[in-house]
Amino acid sequence: MPTAFERWKAELLIVGNIVQDGDSATPPDAAQRRFQRYCAMLDALTGTEGAQYALAIVQSVQAEHDYGAYQTANRAAWRFGERAYCAALLQELPRLIATLPDWAGDFLVGIANGAGTPKASTITCFNTLLAAAPPAQQALIADFIAQEEDDGWFAHCPGVLGAIASERYAGIMPGQDATASYQLFLLPGEADALPWQDALDWAAARGACLPTRSELALLHANLGHTFPDAWYWSSEADAILPRLAWSHDFDNGTQYNYRKTYAGRACAVRRVELPLSVAACVPLRQGERYAGLILGADGAPDYHLLLQPDECELEYQSWQAASSWAASLGHSLPGRREQTLLYATLKAAFRPNWHWSGEPGDIEDEAWCKDFDTGVSYQTARECDGYARCVRRVPA
From its phi and psi, is residue 367 left (phi > 0), alpha (psi between -120 and 50) or beta? Predict the structure, then answer.
């Protein structure tokens, strides 16, 4: 049976397809009733119903001539907040650009015109979401914006809209203990041979910050190929020994605490809060925990990683026994990248011991494992007895 939202959306899509002048198939009084019903449905929204309503509103824009109705729709979508509005528009822009380019321009210029006003944050929100969009979608939207900057909707504000140049999307840090989830972005460039305090100052001067230890592990999981095999400062000082600060080694994943006077590399990140837990959008089974996104080779989200319940833990077993155990549950051991993601986002869910990965080693009769205390990944004999946890993957 359809939900209340599904019934509401189905009706909205019908009445939102505004009857055009010259359409003899629909009597004028019926067309007027549909128009009035559409506007009434939009006016009844408060903005608290959920982000799916904002998306349905944008999807209801289907006709070339609206006679004022789609301006009502635009105002209604804005009630759900800038992120819900931008996310809905971004999802529907390929369709609008292909079939209703004037409406694509009209909605986007409403964002661009916020430059220099209290609504400027919406520009940042849109550009950030665009930077995280799949490359093909990002390229299509960027091409439309460039065309309209030449002599169109954005000729008066070139350079305002567009993915933030050279940033790299690193994935999601799921919220823990009622904190909000957020997306992490790696800024271009890095610093070399800086003491810890200088590294903090360098990142702050860029309007950003050094990554935390968990964020460095997330960068390693999804963007490790962009880093040299070297250690980088984190933003975290040692809680017990104040003369030390924590670092992350992009060679083997180890997190060390070094003297703050040592010279190390530094990278800068920024965070964009997600108002709703992304895990809530992924169907979780009983006891599962959301670990975050694994990105594909093109930098786009590939799949969500889910850690299986705590009772699905194996102790003191060989690699082959652990692999067979995971398969018997319909799951698998995590790969090396996946273990690094788990260390970044769900470290506290693991014993501070080494755990088997699902990957055989480079040497015969060895396999890869990860220490969930120090973070180091290494190869060990498959006959050794270790811990194991299994994971499930959901396509993004």
Answer: beta
